[in-house]
Each structure stands twice: as C-alpha cells, then as structure tokens.
C-alpha cells in the first residue's frame, strides 16, 4: 500500500502476512530462501520437481513465493523423523 509522508515521498506500508507469501521473488531470493544454487533450481524445474518460474518480461523471471515455501515444506515433511 502506498502512503505519502509529510515530505511527499512515497513509502510502501508492510504487506499483510497473507499477501507477503503471494508476492513474486527473483532468483537471488529463491536461492537465499532454499539454500540451494541456481543449477539445482533449474535442474529440478526441468524434472518437474521445483516450482516453475514465470517470465514477466524478456529480462525478468520470477517465482511465486508461496510455491517456493510449499516446496520447502514438502521437503521437510518427506524427511524421516529422528
């Protein structure tokens, strides 16, 4: 949400938690969240085992954060308990 402060500078209010999970993220953030590298991400995408990227423009590729978080949760649940 866009707000203007007293100096007429545009500032964005924090997103609510539901909207935060539905935002687009770029490759560096996907790598940071998952802890895996670009090669792994693209390899697993090709195998159908990682969320597909979305081509927003010729130079901009993004992922949906909620899909990446779901993929991560699935990996955690598939691990045997200690």
Explained architecture:
The chain is an alpha+beta fold and 82 residues long. It has a domain at 21-75. It has four helices and five strands. The protein has helices spanning 17-21, 27-34, 38-46, 65-77, and strands at residues 2-4, 10-12, 24-25, 54-57, 60-64. The strands form two sheets. The protein has a three-stranded antiparallel beta sheet. The protein has a two-stranded antiparallel ribbon with strand order 1-2. The longest helix has 13 residues, at 65-77. It is globular and about 55 Å long. The termini are far apart. The mean pLDDT is 86.
User: Termini distance?
Assistant: 44 Å
Order of helices and strands: EEHEHHEEH
* Beta-strand segment tally: 5
- Helix percentage range: 40-55%
Oligomeric state: single chain
Number of helices: 4
Taken from the alpha-carbon principal axes, the silhouette is globular
The main β sheet shows up as: 3 strands, antiparallel
Main attributes of the structure:
82 residues, alpha+beta, three-stranded antiparallel sheet, two-stranded antiparallel sheet, 21% strand, globular
List the helices and strands and how they pair.
Blueprint: E1 2-4, E2 10-12, H1 17-21, E3 24-25, H2 27-34, H3 38-46, E4 54-57, E5 60-64, H4 65-77
Antiparallel strand pairs: 1-2, 3-5, 4-5
Provide a compact summary of the structure:
The chain is of the alpha+beta class and 82 residues long. The chain is 43% helix and 21% strand. The radius of gyration is 16 Å and the shape is globular.
């Amino acid at each position: 949400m866009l707000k203007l402060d007293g100096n007429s500078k545009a500032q964005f209010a924090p997103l609510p938690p539901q909207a935060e999970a539905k935002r687009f993220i770029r490759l560096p953030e996907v790598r940071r969240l998952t802890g895996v590298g670009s090669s792994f991400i693209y390899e697993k995408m090709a195998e159908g085992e990682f969320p597909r990227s979305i081509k927003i423009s010729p130079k901009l590729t993004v992922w949906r954060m909620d899909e990446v978080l779901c993929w991560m949760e699935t990996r955690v649940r598939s691990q045997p308990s200690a």
